[in-house]
TrEMBL record, chains A, B:
It comes from the Bacteria. Residues 1-55 form the HTH lacI-type domain. GO terms for molecular function: DNA binding. PROSITE patterns: HTH_LACI_1, HTH_LACI_2. This is LacI family DNA-binding transcriptional regulator. Pfam families: LacI (PF00356), Peripla_BP_3 (PF13377). The lineage of its organism: Bacteria, Bacillati, Actinomycetota, Actinomycetes, Kitasatosporales. It comes from Streptomyces fildesensis.
Amino acid sequence: MNIRELALRSGVSTATVSRALNDRAEVSEATRDRIRRLASELGYAPNEPARTLVRRRSDTIGLVWDTGYETLGFQHPFLQGLLSAVRNALSEADYHLMLLTTSGPGDADTTYLQAVRRHNLEGVVVLGTPADNRALRALAASDVPCSGIDVALSGPRTVRVTSDNAAGAAAAVEHLYAQGHRRIATVTGPLYLPPAAERLAGFRQACARLGLDVPPEYVVTGDFFLNSGQDAVRTLLATEQPPTAVFAAGDQMAIGALHAAADAGLSVPGDLAIVGFDDIDAASLVRPALTTVAQDQRALGSAAVKALRGLLDADPAEPAEPWIVPTRLVVRASSRPGA
Amino acid sequence: MNIRELALRSGVSTATVSRALNDRAEVSEATRDRIRRLASELGYAPNEPARTLVRRRSDTIGLVWDTGYETLGFQHPFLQGLLSAVRNALSEADYHLMLLTTSGPGDADTTYLQAVRRHNLEGVVVLGTPADNRALRALAASDVPCSGIDVALSGPRTVRVTSDNAAGAAAAVEHLYAQGHRRIATVTGPLYLPPAAERLAGFRQACARLGLDVPPEYVVTGDFFLNSGQDAVRTLLATEQPPTAVFAAGDQMAIGALHAAADAGLSVPGDLAIVGFDDIDAASLVRPALTTVAQDQRALGSAAVKALRGLLDADPAEPAEPWIVPTRLVVRASSRPGA
DNA sequence: CTGAAAGCGCTTACAG
DNA sequence: CTGAAAGCGCTTACAG
C-alpha cells in the first residue's frame, strides 16, 4: 500500500493525498477527512525514507550513548532512566531516535558525523560519554546541533545540559547543618570533570554561607567509585578533628563511606552522617538507606531535547546557554537521626 | 556532495560509482580503488534514505525497550548493559538501530508495527518489556521478525532469548551444597514470569539430584523487589527448621534477605548464606557483597541479534528454537565462609 | 567492464 | 481547492 494506491482508491491525485495527510491548509476539509479515514482503514503508512529524501529532513535525532567498545571508565550511574526520558521527550516532539555507534575501537574517526550525514539526522543528544574521543570531537566541531547531558562538548552548535550540581551540593550541606552538624567533610569526584568541580564549589559556598570552617583535610578527592569513598572516610576518621558528617559527591563513594564507618565501628547516622549524590538504585537498597541528592532524569531528558530544539532554531553565531536542571534532596536513614 | 558530483569528479557514471562503493564484482579493481579513494577524500557519504528507497531495505533494526509511558512494574535490572550489548552486536553486523516508542499512554495500538512499516525496519529486538501491551502483541502477531530477550512473544516469526535460568539456579544450589549446606530454601519471583518459573524448576531439580529435601515452607514466592525478599526470609527464619542457606531468584530480593538476616542478628554467611540472581550493580556494593548468578549481558545481546538474523533467513513456517545463554556464578562474601 | 535510463515513494512549486 | 510534472539520491536490470 503506497500513496499511489491510496490516491486511486480515493479518486484524487497523489498530491492531494499527500496534502491531506500532511495537514496542509489548501486541502478542503471534506476531502481531507475522507482521505484520512481511508488511509487508516487501509493501514496506510507513509514511507519515511521517501519523505526524507524529498523533504531533506528526517525528523530523526541521533543518540550517542557511550564511547563504543570497551570504555568502562566514567559511566553515568543512571543512563537507563536518562535514555527513557530522552526517548519520551523526543517522541513527544515527534522525532525519531537513532542510536549511533563508533564501528569499532580503532577507526572511530568521523563515524558519528558520517552517520549524521548519511541519515540526514537533524541533531544529536550525547549521554554520559567521556568527551575525549575523536569521533565525538569531530561531531561537536561540525555544524551539527549537539546537546550533551553532563558532557561539555566544544563546538559552534553545542549546548550542555546538567543538573544544578552546586545547588544540590549546597542542599546537602544545609540539610546536614540543620541536623546540627558543624564539622562537615566532602569526598569529591575527579576535579577535571565539571560535575565534580561544581559539586565541590557548591559545598564550599554553602559552608561559607553558614560560617562553617572547611580545613583542607576535609576535602578529599575520590574517583566516583566505591573504594575511593571508603578510603577517603578512613582518612577523614584519622584526622585530629574527624568530621561528624560527610558529603560524598557520588552515591558509590557514599556507599564506600558507609562501609568505612562500619569498619571503624561507627554507627550511621549517629556517629557519622552521610549524604551522597545521584540516587542510583543501590542508594535505597543499602543499609542504612542513603540520603542523597537525586538528579531528575526526566527533567534532564526533556531539557536535552528542548535545548537541542533551541539550537535548531537559533542563530548559529550565538553560543547557547547551558540548561541547568534542579535536583532534589532525598532524605533517608543515613542522615536522619530519628531513623 | 552526492553521487552525481562524485561521478563527475571521477569521470565515470553514477552507476559505476555506485558499483564501486557497493563492492560489486563487475567493476574493475583500478576504477574501484580510485573512486573509493576520492570518495573518502571528499568525505562523501551515501544518502541512506535514498538507498533504502530503491533497495527496499534499510539495514535497520528497531528496538522496543519498554512499554512506553509509565510502566514501572517489572524492569530488567540491567537493561543498560543489555542495550549496549545489542547495539554493539548490531553494529558489528552492519545494522543501524532505531528506538521505537508508543506515542503515548492511550493510542498505543499498532504503533510499533506502523513504525516498522514506515521505516522499512527489517526486524525488532524487544528488551525487558511486559509483553502484555497491545502494540507489542500486534507487532509479534505480524510477519515482522522479532527477537525478545526474556520476553515471550507469540507470533509466527518470533524467537525468545534467555539466560539459562534453570542451570543458573542449579549452580547456586550446588555451590551452597559444596559449602556444606543441606537445608536450602528459595525465594522465587512471580511464577507466571518464565524466568521465575525456570529458576524455581532448576532449584528443585538440583535439590533432587543432590538428595536434598525441599519442604513446602522452603519455597516462598516473592515479587523480585527488596521487601519481598526481606519478608520471605523473616518467614523462613520462623519455621521449625530454618534453612542455613537461601537462594533468592533476584538480587533485590537477595539484598532484602541480607537485611532480614541482619535484623535477626544472624551473620552472613556464618549463620545464613545467601545467593542472588542477575548481578545488578548493587550486588557488589552491599555488605557482605552478594554471591549471585550473573547473566551474561553481552552474550544475551549478541544472541538476540543472531536469533533475529536467523529469523530473517529462516523458513517462516518453522517455529524458531529459543536461544539459551549460559550464566556464571560469581562467588562473593555472602556465601563464602572464609570471607 | 561501463553507461543511459527507469524507477523506488514521496512532496512541492507551478498552473489552473 | 486540485492535478500534472519534476525531482529528491540512489541502484539495477538492460544493452553494449
